[in-house]
Amino acid sequence: RKESSAASDVYKRQVLIMSVNPGFGGQSFIPGALTKLREARARIDAWMQAGGQEIVLQVDGGVKIDNIAEIRRAGADTFVAGSAIFGKPDYAGIITSMREQIAIGETTAI
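Predicted structure:
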């Protein structure tokens, strides 16, 4: 069997919006990142509608249960949540709650 060598078979294109000042964990989400997410989502959607490849919109920093629905509504589809999960007694419960909030963010208007 011949393996594909096309980069498109291996890598997805990704845009990362940092929603904290990079460098250390436990920071609060910077609300201005929501505007950046909306703008990036609009550009990504226009690119894809014009025939461009799929682009993942990731957000990193300050992502928690209480803001992940709003972050999803703003257009993020991939979330980095470090201190919101790690070091907590119930990882699974937090992840389940985050998934529930993401679903709420997907079903409510922007």
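Summary: Strands lie at 13-18, 55-60, 78-80.
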